[in-house]
Specification:
The complex is a heterodimer of chains A (215) and B (221). With 215 residues, chain A is α/β, with parallel strands linked by helices. Chain A has eight helices and nine strands. Chain A has a five-stranded parallel beta sheet with strand order 6-7-8-3-9, sandwiched between helices. Chain A has a four-stranded antiparallel beta sheet with strand order 2-1-4-5, with helices on one face. In chain A, helix 4 packs across helix 5. The longest helix of chain A is centred in the C-terminal third of the chain and has 16 residues, at 177-192. The N and C termini of chain A lie far apart (34 Å). Chain B has 221 residues and is mainly α. Chain B is built from ten helices and no strands. In chain B, helix 3 runs antiparallel to helix 9. Chain B is elongated. Chain B starts with a helix and ends with a helix. The chains are: A alpha/beta (215), B mainly alpha (221).
Chain lengths: 215, 221
């Protein structure tokens, strides 16, 4: 199922898909940001920028619903998050490897899909791994792979798990030039199919267009 | 439901790749229960009397050994985060993890108990009651322990804190589990004790995954 099919469920509406307003977050005594707001519609993406410690990762975790906001509201399909619908439509890839070192890349993908209750056959999973340059590595335990290759295993989930909005925190870290271009292509394809993305990165991203939010 | 079974399968597969972690708890149980008859010497009357208590305390501690790992590995590598954001309900995935923990750390103890009980000169019917009590009691230990494991997740020195938190909660299971065997030996019948254990198991089976899920969400913040 592509982003386009997922999108059809909400066709004919007059609200924006993702609407964030008045978001505030503090860590201990320190205020990280206040009154952050943005909105995304199908095909749009947001580049979150800011120096180290500005609260980019905190904003990402708030956005996906891992931590509660001090103030503000996040609405997805005009419903407050976190909703079951939002979790179905969302992929979040954070700083963590989020793959099991003792399992092979293929097992990781298949089990992650099974846990999410998403059907995934071995052929599709293999094709995703091949596309991300892991041909011949699918049966090795992840622990013997390099940092960049581990990252690619995680990124393969973008291909095996249908989702409408991708929230990628520093997804371009540890990737080589070819992989950066590949991920850029993946995101562009996703946007062209009507998907949405929120990305953080210190580097200029190889994805055209997009809104910018500076923390 | 498929997500629940997938979690069980995943955790069993992971344990299979790292056998030493599972075998530690089982060997601990075998060795501790074998040390007592060796230390006390061949006094069948005394051994028979202390057997249920020793086997239960050893089972309790063996279960505790595996608890810190229940969520910590998934927490460290970020897979727990992915579970919390999964379209499948987190409670279902947590219940799957608890069942996998029992299959790995609880069920082997139940299966070994009749063999180890022989060292204490227990007769066949007493061994049967002991095994039955452990069969009802060890899932209870896993369920209660999961709450403690979730509450102490990410805390420095969490292992000791976990023991302090969970061991007092294990007392009812210990009293009724060991009590069932004693009541049977005294000719009173173990029915009452076993029914109470089963009732506690039903209660924990309903509430523990829910409480564990709530604690995990807090730990992830």
């Amino acid at each position: 199922m592509t982003a386009r099919k997922l999108l059809r469920a909400g066709f004919g509406h007059n609200w924006t898909m993702l609407n964030v307003s008045g978001l505030a977050c503090s860590r201990g005594e320190r205020r990280l940001f206040t009154d952050v707001g943005f909105s995304l519609d199908p095909g749009e993406w947001l580049h979150v920028q800011g120096e180290n410690g500005a609260g980019k990762t905190s904003l990402m975790r708030l956005l996906v619903g891992l931590s509660p906001a001090d103030a503000g509201e996040i609405r997805w399909r005009d419903e407050p998050t976190p909703s079951a619908e939002f979790r179905r439509d969302l992929i979040y890839l954070g700083h963590h490897a989020a793959v099991k070192e003792d399992l092979t890349p293929l097992e990781n993908l298949l089990l992650a899909a099974a846990l999410d209750g998403v059907g995934l056959d071995e052929g599709t999973a293999l094709a995703a791994l091949v596309r991300l340059g892991l041909r011949g590595r699918e049966d090795l335990p992840v622990r013997v792979l390099s940092a960049g290759q581990k990252r690619r295993v995680l990124l393969a989930r973008l291909l095996t798990r249908p989702a409408l909005i991708w929230v990628l925190d520093e997804a371009f870290n540890a990737l080589d030039v070819a992989a950066v271009r590949q991920l850029g292509d993946l995101i562009a394809e996703h946007l062209a199919a009507g998907g949405m993305a929120v990305l953080t990165s210190h580097q200029p991203l190889p994805v055209p267009g997009g809104k910018t939010l500076v923390l | 439901m498929n997500a629940f079974l997938a979690t069980v399968r995943r955790d069993l597969l992971l344990a299979l790749r790292r056998k030493s972690e599972v075998l530690t708890a089982v060997f601990f149980f075998v060795i501790v229960t074998s040390l007592f008859p060796l230390g006390i010497g061949p006094e069948p009357v005394l051994l028979k009397k202390i057997a249920p208590g020793i086997l239960w305390v050893a089972a309790l501690l063996a279960t505790l050994l595996g608890l810190p790992r229940l969520f910590s590995a998934d927490h460290v590598d970020g897979t727990l985060e992915q579970m919390a954001l999964s379209p499948s309900p987190l409670g279902l995935l947590v219940a799957g993890k608890i069942l996998a923990h029992w299959l790995l750390c609880g069920l082997p103890l139940v299966l070994l108990a009749p063999v180890l009980g022989l060292q204490f000169d227990l007769d066949a019917s007493t061994l049967g009651i002991l095994t039955l009590a452990l069969l009802l009691g060890t899932p209870l230990l896993s369920l209660i322990g999961a709450i403690g494991a979730a509450l102490t997740l990410g805390v420095r020195g969490g292992g000791v804190l976990l023991a302090l938190l969970v061991l007092p909660l294990y007392i009812p299971a210990l009293i009724f589990g060991a009590g069932a065997v004693e009541a049977h030996s005294a000719g009173l019948g173990a029915g009452g004790h076993l029914s109470l254990l089963a009732a506690m198991l039903a209660l924990a089976g309903f509430f523990a995954p829910w409480a564990t899920t709530a604690a995990l969400r807090v730990a992830l913040e």
